[in-house]
Amino acid sequence: MAGWFETYRGVIFPWNCDFYGHMNVRWYAHHFDDAGFHLWTMAGIPQTAMRDRGVFSVVATTKTDFVHEMRVGELLVVKSAFVHIGNKSLRHVQRMYNADTGTLCAGQDTVEVFFDPKARKSMPMPDFVRTTLQPHLVAPDSEP
After folding, report:
1. Of the candidates 102, 58, 111, 122, which has an alpha carbon nearest to the alpha carbon of residue 82?
2. Are 63 and 109 in contact (CB under 8 A)?
3. Burial label, 85 (beta-carbon count in 10 A; 0-12, 13-18, 19+)
4. Is residue 116 within 8 Å of 54, Cβ to Cβ?
5. If 0-12 CB within 10 Å is exposed, 13-18 middle and 19+ buried, where does residue 69 land?
6. What is the rounded CA–CA span in Å between residue 36 and residue 30?
7. Which of 17, 20, 38, 64 has the smallest CB count inside 10 Å?
8. What is d(CA 119, CA 87) in angstroms, rounded to the nearest whole number?
9. Could you tell me which residues are beta bridge partners of residue 81?
């Protein structure tokens, strides 16, 4: 489990579900997005540290695999990890589980790029980010 962090817990509400009774795609994105913000803090880089240093990262790509449906009233837990650090970007993965059964329900793979908001282009990853995240890297195909 080293490098993996529990980043989010939630419950599936009726308004999260489609007419089939399954959680709708938009809500998977919502839960993963919230978890992604917590991942940085769990790994030692709070959002305030990035903001105070003028460091911005933006999501460049995200891919979600839907493995098992989630239904009203079920509890979910998301576990997240960094899997690659590049020069201007990094990659993290997340796994959503049914909190009661441990069933894997979805996975997300995301690339974030460091971004200069004034120049509106990518920028090199700051050294403090690389140094802080390096010890937390896990293999891309590992599981928590």
Report:
1. 111
2. yes
3. middle
4. no
5. middle
6. 10
7. 20
8. 18
9. 93
Q: What is the pLDDT of residues 27-80, one digit of tens each?
A: 999 999 999 999 999 999 999 998 899 889 999 999 999 999 999 999 999 999
Distance CA 54, CA 113 (A): 14
CATH homologous superfamily, domain 5-135 = Hotdog Thioesterase (3.10.129.10)
Amino acid (one-letter) located at 40: W
Q: Are 78 and 31 in contact (CB under 8 A)?
A: yes
**Which contiguous run of DSSP H or E holds residue 56?**
none
CA distance linking residue 107 with residue 109, whole number of Å: 7
CA distance 55 to 123: 10
Structure tokens at 101: 């059964």
